[in-house]
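Write out the bound-state structure for pyridoxal-5'-phosphate.
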Amino acid sequence: MPHEKHNKVIYERLQEKLQRRKEKGIYRKLQLHQGLADFCSNDYLGLARNKELYSRTKNELGQISSVLNGSTGSRLLTGNHAYNEALEARLANLFDAEAALIFNSGYVANTAIMSCVAERTDTIIYDELVHASIKEGYRLSFAKRYPFLHNDLTDLEKKLKKADGEKFVVVESIYSMDGDRANLNALAELCQDYNANLIVDEAHSTGIFGKGGSGLVCELGIQDSFFARVYTFGKAIGSHGACVVGNHVLIDYLVNFAQGLIYTTALPLHTLVSISNAFDYITENEHLQKDIKQIVRHFQKVMQPSKFDIKLNDSPIQIVRIGDARKAKDLAERLQRNGFDVRAIVSPTVKLGEERLRICLHTFNTESEITQLASYLQG
Ligand SMILES: Cc1ncc(COP(=O)(O)O)c(C=O)c1O
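---
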């Protein structure tokens, strides 16, 4: 007998929860948007679709004779190849850290580090808007944890004053659903005053800022103020995977205690080669970072004045606040019908009442396309 026939209860419960999401207008479904102008992906520099980069990666793979299709095991067993170690040495150098450790994704890197470094007697204080992977990570740890108000250092200081044990402060350099920056200089000073360990997720600044795509911390030259930094390769780098950088002790600790590294098959060689080539490409094409800044400036120019509550950022992530899930979805669908792939971000990804359009800009978006998008939005 099929499972759903002999155990109806669980399926009814799942259906009820799905139904509630539909009623609230926050039901998610997988969708294909072919042929629309991309104002939604994280491929800010167009590297995921860059043919030259693809053929460079293919050529390099053709010259390598080791295991090609899969890595064959965890990094601690048979999944560790010379390429991993060479790439990690290169990433440590790029991000100006003692050492780097590659993880299968940013999600895994965040859950891995957050779940294993803090102990029961410690305190994790995180910006209320940090990514779901950071939240999942600290839930797996036994440490006490408290949010601080988004980008509010006064609130952070209040929490730091009360914190026990080793203190960890967790932020993103560019917030994924808001596109705004953390004040990294001020955070670094505050954490130093309170002897707190600062962890930053650079998912949305990797590639976009800093020499060779080394991110915002390196651009600001404050690498030494951080206990750990997480860089991801699935966004502006156009590939997949992530790394944590820090000192040798931290990296050695992660090799020993990070479940997300130990108990999973390592990334395949083709991903590693594509990451390596993407960083070469960014270094050779310095104009990419200037191009994305120009695109951002153009968007800001054509979006002002606006009838919407807009949040214009110096990152490729721009926000149009709508404040209602159905209205945000309707507006996104209207833009999609007109050829623009813009998506609504609704609860629980953002708080209820904070529903929005998240417009991602790319080097391949043309100025006329952006002007058109702005006029459909404002019209
Ligand atoms: C801030 C932030 N950190 C981590 C991640 C996860 O990275 P990945 O897509 O590599 O798993 C994301 C992706 O959405 C993100 O926005």
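---
DSSP finds 15 helices and 13 strands in the chain.
Residues 105-107, 110, 131, 133, 172, 176, 201, 203-204, 232, 234, 242 surround pyridoxal-5'-phosphate (CB under 6 Å).
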